[in-house]
Write a structure and sequence with these properties.
It comes from Dendrothele bispora (strain CBS 962.96). One of its GO terms (biological process) is secondary metabolite biosynthetic process. Belongs to the cytochrome P450 family. Keywords: Heme, Iron, Metal-binding, Monooxygenase, Oxidoreductase. The strands form four sheets. This protein has a four-stranded mixed sheet. A three-stranded antiparallel sheet has the order 3-11-8. Strands 5-6 form a two-stranded antiparallel ribbon. The protein has a single domain, classed as Orthogonal Bundle (Cytochrome p450), CATH 1.10.630. By secondary structure, it is α+β, with helices and mostly antiparallel strands. A hairpin with a 2-residue loop joins strand 1 and strand 2. It starts with a helix and ends with a helix. It contains 20 helices and eleven strands. Helices cover 53% and strands 10% of the residues.
């Protein structure tokens, strides 16, 4: 009951984190679940063993009518052949092929933000979901798809789905049948958001672009072709649609949620913006963004400060049990960890952990390598996010584009309470929006 209460209020990760200093770096947070915050112990459970994931938690992430995709298969043997295509499609070499498309999408995004000339606020969460959808689409299924007609609905669908995950983890199954047809229009939309997400991707699969041999392999192509090793996956239309729906969700939400918090912190700390702007002036275009030290620090700090995934992963202990930190964990118990606590529980390496401070990543002291080791925003082990490289690639490009073009300011309606982190399929702002002012730099300089 305790864990459901914490999840309902979006506080499980921070509450569990607060227990660690009191009870040690292994805490039992449910009758069948222990939170482990020791890197070596986590490596023993998550990296060195091929353990299955906890089925109840991950199946809250199903799409459509209870349809599975890579993340929701507890069995590693089922997930592995579905993860590999994402990793291949998201290599830096392949992403560079799509770079021009990313820049074209970003130009539309920046024009939208500049349309108000800094006179009114923009919900950056909404805008980022549209941009990351456009970017992820080419990597997932190629450049020949027209997704414009799906744009308007997508941010709201995703936002409602994120909070639906919380409902699925907390409420009994029977209540969803009632909510689906109940009197509340709001509840009906939230419960059906999973179906809407699936329907969008099913339609896109039906319109899948004609193969282009000049393009790098897309996720869709790699999923549906015979692999070099092992038997091919025999997909039904429903299964591949669910897979693609889940992949587009993962490709958009991790990036847009983290960037929203980063831009909010930029608005609070203009000195960070200015330092980053000056660094961006040292290069032409976007071809050398991966060489910029302060840009890298700003992204790392955003991923540390508000990790895109809350409880980073859970594993079910197999036959024979496992010994972690000197304690025997019996079969069937769930071992979980979270990126949030890896850094928050090391004040010697991350002082003032509740403060967004990119400069901490510029220190080249004796703690440098350990700080890097403890940053695991995309998970650890064999089930870590396969698209993490694409998330970083997009973050560099999007941050550079905005900071070069605008000075970011807080909107009057944006308060610390509204931006309090809420754990809903990862960390989101309390009301799933972030209103900011984007003042064109040429206008700002003439004030």
């Amino acid at each position: 009951m305790w864990i459901r209460w914490q999840r309902w209020h979006g506080k499980l990760s921070f509450t569990a984190d607060a227990l660690l200093p009191k009870y040690g770096q292994m805490v039992r947070i449910a009758p069948n679940m222990v939170l482990v915050n020791d890197p070596d112990a986590v490596a023993a459970a998550f990296v060195k063993q091929n353990l299955n994931t906890a089925p109840k938690a991950i199946r809250a992430l199903r799409v459509g009518h209870e349809r599975d995709w890579t993340v929701t298969y507890p069995e590693m043997d089922m997930a592995k052949p579905r993860r590999h295509p994402v990793m291949v499609a998201c290599t830096t070499k392949n992403l560079k092929y799509w770079h021009r498309h990313f820049e074209d999408n970003q130009e539309v995004f920046l024009n939208t933000l500049s349309s108000s000339s800094g006179r009114k606020s923009h919900d950056i969460v909404h805008a980022l979901r549209l941009l990351t959808l456009a970017n992820s689409q080419v990597v997932l299924a190629g450049a020949g798809l027209d997704i414009g007609k799906y744009h308007a609905e997508f941010p709201e669908i995703v936002g409602q789905y994120n909070f639906l995950v919380v409902w699925r983890l907390v409420l009994p199954d029977w209540i969803f049948k009632w909510l689906r047809w109940g009197p509340s229009k709001y509840a009906r939309y939230r419960v059906r958001s999973s179906d809407y997400l699936y329907d969008v991707k099913a339609s896109l699969i039906d319109e899948e672009a004609k193969p282009n041999d000049e393009e790098p392999p897309t996720v869709y192509k790699l999923l549906t072709q015979a692999p070099s090793k092992g038997p091919p996956i025999e997909w039904t239309h429903e299964e591949i649609s669910a897979e693609m729906a889940g992949q587009v969700l993962a490709a958009t939400e991790t990036t847009s949620s983290t960037l929203s918090f980063i831009f909010y912190e930029f608005a609070k700390h203009p000195e960070v913006q200015e330092k980053l702007y000056q660094e961006l002036q040292t290069i032409d275009g976007n071809g050398q963004l991966d060489s910029l030290v302060y840009l890298d620090a700003a992204i790392k700090e955003g991923l540390r400060f508000r990790p895109p995934v809350a409880l980073t992963g859970s594993r079910v202990v197999g036959d024979g049990g496992i010994v972690l930190m000197g304690h025997y964990i019996p079969p069937g118990m769930i071992v979980t960890t979270q990126a949030l606590s890896f850094t928050r529980q090391r004040p010697d390496l991350f002082p003032d952990s509740d403060t967004y401070y990119p400069d901490r990543w510029l220190l080249r002291d004796e703690g440098f390598e350990e700080r890097r080791r403890l940053l695991v925003p995309f998970g650890v082990g064999t089930r870590r996010c396969p698209g993490g490289n694409m998330a970083i690639y997009q973050m560099r490009l999007i941050i550079a584009g905005i900071v070069r073009s605008f000075k970011i300011e807080l909107a009057p309606e944006t308060t610390p309470d509204k931006m309090a982190p809420f754990e809903a399929n990862g960390f989101r702002s309390k009301y799933d929006r972030c209103d900011l002012m984007f003042v064109p730099r040429e206008k700002h300089e003439t004030k």
